[in-house]
Write a structure and sequence with these properties.
Oligomer: single chain
Shape: globular
Length: 239
């Protein structure tokens, strides 16, 4: 066996298994997080609670997940670590780290199935133009259908939320329409269809869609039976 081959074997043996390292780190973080939440819940005064909240383990573990993602670049463990980094940064409203994690996911792990989870996480994150551009790339380039659907739905919702400009709102609607049409068999397609129904029929000034039901005595009625009258509708049930 050549010297080079022996050296490569030695390096491979010295390099820790990324998946095992990720699992160990996740376990450490989960324990630290549970202990942190227990301390916060046990606080008996605002001052004690504030002191407990200062010991949020995210500040300690976020750099460790980032470092793991860097060293394991190109592996599924790295993609999982980046997702963890994004979620932790999102809870801290650290837009720079959020964008950095998403950018690395798109650049190095676009074929990972974890991209779908990342797209879902981005959809509910605070508005940030850099995230929108990266989400658009996932919606266009990911090889995974679920990731493309999640990214397009998330971007559509982000463009429609808040005080969007007319062109952004128009793009948002087009994205939802495409998800409802092209991904109708997925939860994302059904969610897009529901959002479009809400936009088209359940806004102030719109005519409420008619429906049939029975009252508490079993008598059938239609909502349109009360058109022109002041009406209060109370929906309730048990789940």
């Amino acid at each position: 066996m050549t010297t080079i081959a022996l050296l490569l074997i030695a390096l491979a043996q010295d390099k820790p298994d990324a998946a095992a390292e990720l699992k160990k780190l996740q376990t450490e973080y989960a324990k630290a997080r549970d202990a942190f939440l227990d301390a916060v819940r046990a606080a008996k005064s605002p001052e004690e609670r504030a002191r407990a909240e200062e010991k949020d383990p995210d500040a300690l573990f976020l750099p460790r997940f980032k470092e793991l993602a860097r060293r394991a670049k190109g592996t599924s463990a790295a993609a999982s670590a980046l997702l963890q980094v994004f979620e932790m940064a999102s809870s801290r409203e650290d837009e720079a780290v959020m964008e950095e994690a998403l950018k690395e996911m798109v650049a190095s792990h676009l074929d990972s199935t974890r991209v779908e989870e990342m797209a879902v996480a981005v959809a509910s994150a605070n508005p940030h133009a850099g995230l929108d551009d990266l989400l658009r790339q996932i919606g266009e380039k990911s090889p995974h259908r679920g990731a493309r659907a999640a990214a397009r739905l998330g971007l559509g919702q982000r463009l429609l939320n808040g005080e969007s400009k007319a062109d952004r709102a128009a793009e948002g609607r087009r994205l939802l329409e495409s998800v409802a049409k092209d991904f109708a068999d997925t939860p994302y397609g059904r969610e897009a269809e529901g959002k479009l129904f809400e936009m088209n029929h359940l806004q102030i000034g719109k005519v409420v869609p008619d429906f049939e039901a029975k009252d508490q005595d079993g008598k059938a009625f239609k909502l349109s039976d009360y058109r022109g009258k002041v009406l209060v509708i109370d929906f309730w049930g048990f789940w």
